[in-house]
Amino acid sequence: DTGVSQNPRHKITKRGQNVTFRCDPISEHNRLYWYRQTLGQGPEFLTYFQNEAQLEKSRLLSDRFSAERPKGSFSTLEIQRTEQGDSAMYLCASSSGDSNQPQHFGDGTRLSIL
Amino acid sequence: DQQVKQNSPSLSVQEGRISILNCDYTNSMFDYFLWYKKYPAEGPTFLISISSIKDKNEDGRFTVFLNKSAKHLSLHIVPSQPGDSAVYFCAASGGGSEKLVFGKGTKLTVNP
Question: Contact A91/B43, CB-based, under 8 Å?
Answer without folding.
Answer: yes
